[in-house]
Structures
1.
Amino acid sequence: MRHFPAFLNPLIVSENPETLRSAEILVRSTTMRQNPLMIRRYPRLLLLSCALILAVLFLAVPSVRAQQPPPSVAPPQPQAEQPSSPPPQSNAGEQEKQKAPDETTREQRTGTSDDRLFWTLPNFLTVDSENIPRLSAGAKFKVVARSAFDYVEFPWYAFLSGLSQAENSEPGYGQGAAGYGKRFGAAIADGTIENFMTAAVLPSILKQDPRYYQLGKGGFWHRTTYAVSRILVTRSDAGTAQFNFSEVFGSAISAGISTYSYHPRSDRTVDNTLKVWGTQVGYDTLTLVVKEFWPDIRRHFRKK
């Protein structure tokens, strides 16, 4: 499921365009479902990402706490005077209020959203309302297909495949156009299989809800703990809390399918499959934290 408060800090406190672009690239590498590709080919990137998250996690706390300024007390108006017109709102505030009714209507109607992390990455299974319709099995497959085959995915897979080719990772694929084509196809298959297994196939069989319900209130650590816990706790279609079999076992199944079907024979070991599975769940956990704090980041940019 798709990756954090650690990235909140460079995005909020930095005004350097290069820093913002670097942070976005790092988030993109953890929020999309092609994680098995990154796991197999860039273990150093995983360690670097974890180190960066731990380093800036504490610095992100003041930024989140500062999002709720103390309420201002308006001076009393004389009884004889006409009520003054409200002060003009900023363009960001007007856009937020104009969009809110449409977004609420969309969630109420379909149970999904049209949101995108950082205005690019599909975030269609993240909602902020409790009173939304259930997702039928057909609706689960439809929204996952919409996300898995989104226009953003293919250029990203192509970029990752180019990096893999340049480093000659998984040398069993070879080099040249044929090697690149194999890497590109494997990247698409890795992301698509995990998407469908964790958010469509198993949720339909087990009658579990694949959506992430944003908490959106409380302190930084409270919201972070809630987001992390959703990797193990989800809702049934009836709304009751359940163990997240869809995520845990869906990612394991997708790791096994990809490893033992089309990846090079040298990678087809139980040890490698378990590493892919564990790291995949870890990346999905971080994705949930990003989803929880994405509205705060979005409001920050709209205020500018």
2.
Amino acid sequence: MIENNKGNDDMSHRKIFDFLGNQKFNVKIDVKKEDENKKEDKHIEKAPDRLEVLKLIEQYEREGLFDVDPEKDPPTIVLTPGQVDYLRKKYLSKVKTKLAYSVGKQFLDAMLKNNKLIIKKINGIENWDAVNSGAIITCNHFNPFDCFTVEKIFRETKHYKEKKYLYKVIREGNYTNFPGFYGFLMRNCYTMPLSSNRHVMKEFLDAQKEALQHGDFILMYPEQSLWWNYRKPKPLKDGAFKLAVKTKVPVVPIFITMEDSNIIGDDGFYVQEYTVNILPAIYPSGGLTDRENAINMKNANYDAWKDMYESFYKEPLKYTTDPEILKELL
């Protein structure tokens, strides 16, 4: 891996990028043969950590703690000013991003080939293509790899062909303290880490505004929690919508619905088949204050997700949360 540009003055950026793009990285995913994982096979023990997460999700829904993450995330190491090259402007950042994208593409292709990730259907890609500016992309968050799904769909849009980028907002600890291969992707695949350092957050917000003005897209999870394989939309936070109003860009809601496949994963649960539903863009309205606009856009996003949930699953959206608590959240 190239650590710096010393001694490489005779090699242009393009030559380095072409060199990295032509490399082959061995990305392997261990997977059982399909006939070993048919639905009839009930002998794969369910992973204890997944059972514990599902139990916590049931508890958190009852208690209305929709923004609490039941997963055991890595501890947060606080970012310092200048540590993150949010828009990948530095030479070394560009090289690492090229490398990460090459490896990440192979990893994604391997997941799809081996049915670790199954995208059954894409609805509404014309809604993304219809946007003629930068935009906030919102998505329900139910799997660490759902960002790979959105990235895969983005590459089918006209915007990818027009050399626009899809940035992904991630938590601080995932950027600073995630180990190994996944940590490398977390730090280098156009991610934008949040931070508990207010000076870094200024850099974060400035970079978001610049990216949107350039016509790029930012993937945000306004539920602010990952609930594994949770099918319902959760109450939304304001942040994504405040940013959309402030930068005068639309929000494109994506709601991914799920069905059991006929394949049992290594965790003992059925691998989910995803239908990616890209819904019509939501635009700020004239004549409203920024706060009113953000609230209206947030409610419109939630309503669009709710309607898609009820249409796909053929059942009304209901929570086990106490109605008085839920009223305060929605």
